[in-house]
Hints:
The chain has 115 residues and is α+β, with helices and mostly antiparallel strands. The protein has one domain: 2,3-Dihydroxybiphenyl 1,2-Dioxygenase, domain 1, CATH 3.10.180. Helices cover 17% and strands 44% of the residues. It has helices at residues 15-24, 71-80; strands at residues 3-11, 28-32, 36-40, 48-52, 64-68, 84-91, 96-102, 108-114. The chain has an eight-stranded mixed β-sheet. Strand 7 and strand 8 (108-114) form a beta hairpin. The chain starts with a strand and ends with a strand. The model has no long low-confidence stretch (mean pLDDT 97).
Amino acid sequence: xxxxxxxxxxxxxxxxxxxxxYVRLGxxxxxxxxxxxxxxxxxxPTAQVTLSTADATADVVPDLTIEVDDVDAAHDAMVAxxxxxxxxxxxxxxxxxxxxxxxxxxxxxxxxxHR
Length: 115
């Protein structure tokens, strides 16, 4: 399994202000679904920050996103290890396949692959 990027997910109740803050640091918007916005470095596009007010299909906002090349293999590895799955493996309407898993510290990790 190949990790393509790791992105911190920041929960916010002040989306506009948070977006403006990170734009002032040199990031540019690369995705906006309303409830989630991703900002990236214009010169290193895998250097990203995601801002979320909620999650469209899950009852929890993740703390971290790890994009992998094979999300099904990642899911199988986590299930085999007995990890707590917080959001079932599924295809989302915005073009990703993902699941959420809880790490040993209780952080929720969004494991994702683009379709």
